[in-house]
Structure formats: C-alpha cells, structure tokens
Amino acid sequence: MVDGVEGSVTLVAYTTVYLAINSRAATLGGMATTQDITAASATTVTSVPPAQLAAWRAFLEAHAHTTELLARELKEEEGLPLAWYDVLVHLHEADDHRLRMQELADRVLLSKSGLTRLIDRMEREGLVTRTACPSDRRGTFAELAPKGATALRRSAPTHLRGVREHFATHLTDDEAEQLAAILGRIAGAARDAST
Fold this sequence. Notes:
Elements (H helix, E strand, L loop, with lengths): L3 H24 L6 H11 L5 H29 L3 H12 L4 E3 H7 L7 H10 L3 E6 L2 E9 L1 H21 L6 H22 L1
Antiparallel strand pairs: 1-3, 2-3
Helix pairs in contact: 1-2, 3-7, 4-7
C-alpha cells in the first residue's frame, strides 16, 4: 500500500496510464493487464509537485460539484439544462445573436460533443433556429430565437444566484482577480496546445 502525497501522485499517474491503456485496448477489443500498466507506467509516470497536484484535484472537485449544483438548480427551478443555458448565453453575446456551428462548438463550455443533437433539441423547443450561411452553402448558423431570449432572461437570475452562492461568496475581490488571472493563463495555454 502506498501512503502520503507521493503515493497520491503515483496513484493519479497510474490511473491516467490505466485509462489510456484501456482506451487503446478497447479499440483493439481487449482489456489492459497489470503487466501492461506496469510496463507503460515505467515510461510514462512523471511526478507532479504536491502543491500543484493538490490544486489540480481541488479544481476538479470544485468544478464538478459546483456545476452539478448549478445544473440541478437551473433544471429544477427553470426547467432548463445547464448546457442549453450555456448555448443561449453564447448566442446572446454574439454579433446578431448567431454563430456558425463550428464557432459555437469552440465556445461552449459544457457540451462540445453532441452539439448538433443539442441544437436539434433546442430547435424543436423553439429556443434556437438554424439558418444557412449565405456566403458558404456548407455553413450553418445557430441563431437565438425570441423564445430562447425569453428563456435566457427568465433563467439568468437563478443561474447568477447559484454562481454567487456556490462560487463568488467564497472569494474576496483580490482572490477572484488572482484566480481569474491564473485560470485564464492555464486556459490560454491549453487552447494554444490544442491548436
């Protein structure tokens, strides 16, 4: 049995390796063995300083629990899924309240996969419309419909109350500025690395 922070680092690294190996093995129709994990971990496990690992885990836990609370409150009080709210916000903030589907996929925070199906459902509910791009016959815009704008106005107070209660009240103004700068730097580096 592995104890302490160093053990946590190793456990997280092994878990990452295990998931990566099983993902690869699943595509080949199999499951990774202990020997596969041990062999892979010998070359792929790297250490993460304990303070940074603790910050990473706290970030993941805070994100998971906070978004779960926000999603539950929005669904229970307004009947609106959080992923739909995310789409409505981005369309509302866009020029002419519309975005190409690819631009929308790049901007949404909660549901990049399955965006087409999500927009299909939102269109059936009358919250968004899809229009062809006049300059590119292959391009499609998602556009905020009047019913979607109404849903956003109605649900925004519930969502913002949740953000205040579950997130903002736990930070001083200075901490909020520091956290925004730090997370912005990390997000920017991740965006740069993915392009």
